[in-house]
Structures are given as C-alpha cells and as structure tokens.
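Table S2 (continued). Query chain:
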Amino acid sequence: MNVAPPRSALVEWLLRPPRPITTTTVFLITAATGIAQLIHPALFDRFCRAPDRVAAGEWWRLGTAMFFQDGWTAGLLFNLVILLVFGAIAERVLGRWRWVLLYFGCGLFGQVVSYLWLRSTGAGNSMCVAGLVGALTIAALRAPDRFGPRRPARPILYAVPALAVFGAIFHDNHGLPVLLGMAVGYPLLPRDRPEPRT
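Corresponding output:
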C-alpha cells in the first residue's frame, strides 16, 4: 500500500483556506506576458522602462514594466519562482488588499526610482517582490514566534535591511523597494488577535 509522504508545515499552512488567489492571479498574468515577450521580443521594447520614451510622455511604461522581464528566460523563471514563494507567504500574512498595495506600490516606486535616479532601461517584477520581502521582514521581527523563522535563524532577518541599504548605496534598484515595504508594511500589518480568556 502506497502512503503519501507527509507535507511540510509550511506547505500545509499555505494550502489551507484562504488560498493565495491574488498571488496566483498575478503569477499567471506575469507568466503570460513573459511568455509573450519570449515569443515576440518586440514586446519588450514596446512596454519596458525606457527613460527616453518615459521622458517623451509614455509614463504608462512605469506600470507595464512590472509585467515584462529584462532577464528574458532566466529572469522570467527566477522572478516567477520568487513571486510564487514570497507572494504566497505574504498573502497569508498580510491579506489580499495589503498584498496588492505593497506589491504594486513598491514595484511602481522602484520603477520610478530606476527612471529618475538610475536612468536605466529595464523591466521586471522583482522590485514588486522586494516590497513584499520588506513587509514580511517587519512581520517576522514584530511577531517572531508567529511569523519568524526558528530561533537560530532569526538574526538573518536583520541582514535584510542591511543588504537593502547596502544595495541602495551601490545603485541596486531593489534596496529602496525593500525599505519602502518595511516602512509601509509596519502600520499595515494586521494586529495580533488577543488570546481568548479562559
């Protein structure tokens, strides 16, 4: 008789209701646009964050750039994986409307910073996920027993803001979205429910 292997506690936690519908929806849209870009490479030039085109009035590129990938196949696969992993966890911790606000707010902020400060051409959803990572870090630091990693790994959480600051100093466009996710995530985090009295 075949016995199914036991699922990990994390998998069980992620699969119980409510399901990560928002993460799944954004994942499918991002996968579809990424695959379309691989089939028709001209789509990247049409929708990426191109500083000269944005300066010419095509501001909508700062939004569409969140759905296309400057890393092409490797970038698409990597960004889809981190979206699925961190997105599902963030949706469970933060809830759907906070997820949407942080994902797209931090992503748009990262695109604007990349345009105004770095003047770089590019696209990708990794800065969106960076915002979720920032918010999850705050959640884990504020409620370590509920959301944080096991005790020996908890000091790793302090590396997230340190690496974000380091990245921003050296012109990596992911650092500031992480810090924004931490700053915005703090007041948005759902409050812990008080334990019922016995």
